[in-house]
Amino acid sequence: MLEVYFESDKEVISFCEHLFRSHKQIELNWKTDDKWGNHLQFKEHVATKELMDAITDTMANVFMTHRLRTMVNRIIQEHYYYTNNEEIERIHDLTYWIITGEDEESKRLRENKNHHAFLKSLFTESLKESFVIHFDSIVNFRLKPFKDKLIYFVGLAIDEFRREEDHQAFVDMLRAYVEKKEPGLPVIHILQGSDFAFFKQNGKQMTNIELRVLMKQEPLYIVGLHDNEFNLAPLIAMAPEKLKIYGDDPAEPKTLTVINVFQEKVDFEPISNFPFPYYFNK
């Protein structure tokens, strides 16, 4: 008969709730033990593969819910020596994104590995050795392979965090530079795309030659931009009083950078609001 012990009341409640949500047919007895805390005894006399799979999957879920944050934060502080609470929180969030994110970038960083499945496999190995399982003992002594992976992912998260800091410093510098410049054109209309398309107030699209002339007149090297960059650099050179961006994705990276630099000067609108529709018919 399979027996499982949890010291934490929150964790045993989480375990039972998750288990019964997906496997309502499982029966167990729950009582408290003076030495080991919460004692779960499963009524099946033979530990079936289905039961073992359900229990290990649920244990992995309990760990991710209740223990992952503590383990990650300890790694950030003890392995990488961070002490600032805001920095620790941001690195934790980036680590969690790398491990669990569904976007292409997070999957690339974790090499498309399913780390819930890896964690589950470590619990499975422990269940194969004994029908009496102590969740806390497994977490403390049997999860080193998972912790080693976490150390690596925290390192990746720190790299991302530093890139974010560098980018924010770059944006802050550009914002200060633009604020000191004399305003240029009253309004520039911008179409999203692999590269921005720029339009004057009269609907005329600005050519790359026009943009290059504008950029040559501005010491862009002071703010780390080059005159062969045709998205952000032309806007820094033009310093328009108003920017209207038309597209489908306000979170697109170069669009987001423009919004962060020019702030209240920027309006983002759906592409259907683009005021020069004849451009599309060319």
Automatic annotation (TrEMBL):
Short name of one Pfam family: YtxC
InterPro entries per the UniProt record, alphabetical: Spore_YtxC
Name under which the protein is recorded: Putative sporulation protein YtxC
Species assigned in the record: Oceanobacillus profundus
Gene: ytxC
